[in-house]
Amino acid sequence: PGIGQFIQLMRIMQGLRGGGGAVRGFNVPGRSVSVPLGAARAEELARLGIGSYQISLDGPQEVHDTTRLRADGGGSFGRIWRNLLSIRDSAVEVRVLLRLHLTPSNLPFMREFASRVRDTFLGDSRFSVHFKAVERLGGPHDEELEVLAQEVRSQAQEELGALVRTEGAID
Q1: Which residue of 32, 33, 40, 84 lies most exposed, with the fewest beta carbons within 10 A?
Q2: Cα(128)–Cα(98) distance, integer angstroms
């Protein structure tokens, strides 16, 4: 189902509660949902009780757009970044966890990218960051995934975490 159907469902659930406020405790574990989430959409979803988001980025645009493609084959970074900026520049009350994926291919780019993320978003308490090494979790394309060796993973997460450390900004 599309985002419109999801919002309609949330409104129905809110109506079943007698219109008495936002629906709470709604979670879709294990699902990757690509939703254009600018400030207006975030505001609409916040009114429905959905105010916490996890946004995955695979590095700067030139890296991210090789791994995260839209249905039409184009890259998704520009749209995601613009939407994040619109949330940052708004007053909408949300929490945004920026999940920055780490792989052998993107690691050389991540120090500069993490600094950019820090400078752009982490001065805003609504944003936080988590560095997540890509893992093989049993999916059909596991063998195609590039993964970091454990010692490299730990060191990268520690160094990048220190780089972006801003009180309350690290998850």
Answers
A1: 32
A2: 6
